[in-house]
Amino acid sequence: MISFRSLKPYFWDHKDPGIGLFKHLFDYRRMWKLVVGFSVTFALVPVLCAGIFDFMVTKASMERELFQRTARVVSNTRRSVTFFLAKHRAALKFIVRSSSFEDLRKPLQLYRYLEDLQVVFQEAFTDLGVIDGAGIQIAYTGPFKLEGVDYSGQWWFKEVLLHGVYVSDVFLGYRQVPHLVIAVSHESQDGSIYVLRATVDTVRFNSLLADFQLSKHGSAFIINRNGMLQTESRYYGKIMERMTLPVPEYSARTQVEEVTTDDGKQLIVGYAYIENTPFILLVVKPKDDLMGPWYSTRTTLLAFLSMSIMAVIIAIFSVTTHLINKIHLADEKRLIAMHKLEYENKMASIGRLAAGVAHEINNPLSIINEKAGLIQDMFVLKGMYAKDEKLLSLVGWILKAVERCGTITMRLLSFARHMDVSIGPVNVKELLDEVLGLFDKESDYRGITIKVDVGSDVPVIESDRGKLQQIFLNLANNAFAAMDQGGILNIKVEKQNSTFISIIIADNGCGISQENLDRIFEPFYSTKKKEGGTGLGLSITYSLVHKLGGTLEVDSKIGKGTTFHIELPLKSRNKKMEKL
Amino acid sequence: MKILLVDDEEHLVSTLAERLSLRGFEVSWAITCLDALAQVEIDTFNVAVLDVKMPLMSGLELKNKLQAKCPAMKFIFLTGHGSKADFKSAAFDIGKEYYLIKPLNIDVLVQKLREVTAI
């Protein structure tokens, strides 16, 4: 699994060393944040806006379509219900107009009419009765014994006398069975009024609504103006019970509205008031059911949008990180080059200074040497003060001091001379002695023991003396900085194989923590910034060893010490080595 | 054995001449190349001890001129500029390692003089 550490950009934890002019050109973390922020904003805002706009438009369009479809269903159903009632009414009117009151009173005749109606209307009529003006059912044919029943007290009877035609609510009546009554009144030739009354099967009424294919949880039913269910409803109550939804307001036209139930369910309710009847047709559909396909598409679209956004973000993150890493690396290379140039100039200046000082000192030193030598000669060779041991000893000391100074100036000159690149034979032991000679006094003062063990089989190698000098000097400097009073610096040189020698420089100083050890060769990484460390010493040493075709590794334990392992080729790979 | 010492440092060359005289050598000295060439005109020397770096003319150039006048003359070079490697890197073609580093060890110089003349 990819860890966050590996995803973290290289420059993320980098801190600008901020040494004078040698600063990074940019704050890369801030730059990365800005680029990512702007890119993500400019890339995603239009996508999100388009997505949201499309979402809203599609949703509105879907809802509009849904309302229109519901309105169509309501209108069609209303036409069917209206037609159903109208044709039943028309049949009754036809009977009363084509028959005389006397005919209708005859049970056989009435029975035949009922039989004909049942044949024509597929048994929708269950009975037929003739009621005289006083409200007494004077003739009846049907499954019940309702002859002689007095309807004069019933409100529907009064209605039919008043308006000529009446369609009743569904009611239980004497039979305690839900049914509705269609009644028409007629005035006979003798001026008396009578009523032809028929009971219509509510099962037939229900099946009419059931014929409409609605969604899974949709329901089409009829209520009266008081909200009492007139037909069966699958979800909103039983017949003759009050509907659980509010009664919609009167409208002459088909209406569709959105209703939220008490339990938060959203419903699409289409309704129409059926003219000349107490009925209101309702088509109720749960919105979620109807929007189901759209919800499914929406989920797919959202998933696609999310994946697109993720892909865009990942692409922006990756590209930005890659590019800023490149810029950071280029900037770092520039800084390293500047620092190396500065380092090179510094070393060259030191070299020139050392050479100048050494040369200038060498001449008076030679004169002192010769003068003191002449004094000694005069004492010894000419026999003057030949027996004055103290004088001879003093002259001897002068000469020894001159010799020491001569060695120092020689080292300085040697150091300065090898600033330039040149490949040639190098005796590692001699070179080590030369470099370590510069630490003689410091090791004396601090009681540091330097042990050098060069194997007898170590040959003269072909390398760059100046670079090797800098490598040993830097590593010895590091070791001396790490060691306390009484430290031990062990240097071991061995012939590794026919192509390489190994040089181990081990101190018993304070050691380096694992965290620092991982970054020790990185440019500008220093734990001694406050003491003026540039963090370039080991980085330059590392690059010098590599330029000589060798390898440099480090091993350290806190409190135990640090060991540098250098492997150097016996023969330089490239004689035309570039300058540092 | 007659020796010609040439070095632009008068104190050095005069003292060195005296020290060599004390050791039985016959020594002349010069502080300029022109003086050295003039001395060769009037005298014959077995060995010339030359400073490598001198004004007007380098030790090597002087060696060539002296050798032209006196082909049998042997040469020892003195330098205040470091070690044996100097001569190699400076491309001195001195044939053999007749060079010495300042400050000098008189015994070494004497030994070299004997070696040179023994050839």
UniProtKB/TrEMBL annotation, chain A:
Membrane topology per record: Multi-pass membrane protein
Name of the protein this chain belongs to: histidine kinase
GO cellular component: plasma membrane
Phylogenetic lineage: Bacteria, Pseudomonadati, Thermodesulfobacteriota, Desulfobacteria, Desulfobacterales
Species of the source: Candidatus Desulfaltia bathyphila
InterPro entries tied to this protein: dCache_1 (IPR033479), HATPase_C_sf (IPR036890), HATPase_dom (IPR003594), His_kinase_dom (IPR005467), HisK_dim/P_dom (IPR003661), HisK_dim/P_sf (IPR036097), Sig_transdc_His_kin-like_C (IPR004358)
Gene Ontology molecular function, alphabetical: ATP binding; phosphorelay sensor kinase activity
Annotated signal peptide: none
EC number, as in UniProt: 2.7.13.3
Residue intervals passing through the bilayer: 34-57, 301-324
Key words of the record: ATP-binding, Cell membrane, Kinase, Membrane, Nucleotide-binding, Phosphoprotein, Transferase, Transmembrane, Transmembrane helix, Two-component regulatory system
Protein location: Cell membrane
Listed CDD domains: HisKA, PDC2_DGC_like
Annotated Pfam families: dCache_1, HATPase_c, HisKA
Source taxon at top rank: Bacteria
Domain Histidine kinase: 356-572
From TrEMBL, chain B:
GO biological process, one term: regulation of DNA-templated transcription
Location of the Response regulatory domain: 2-117
Biological source species: Candidatus Desulfaltia bathyphila
The protein's name: Response regulator
Origin superkingdom: Bacteria
Record carries keyword GTP-binding: no
PROSITE patterns: RESPONSE_REGULATORY (PS50110)
Entry GO CC: cytosol; protein-DNA complex
Presence of keyword DNA-binding: yes
Protein keywords: DNA-binding, Phosphoprotein, Transcription, Transcription regulation, Two-component regulatory system
Classification via Pfam families: Response_reg
Modified residues (4-aspartylphosphate): D51
Single GO molecular function: phosphorelay response regulator activity
Signal sequence coordinates: none
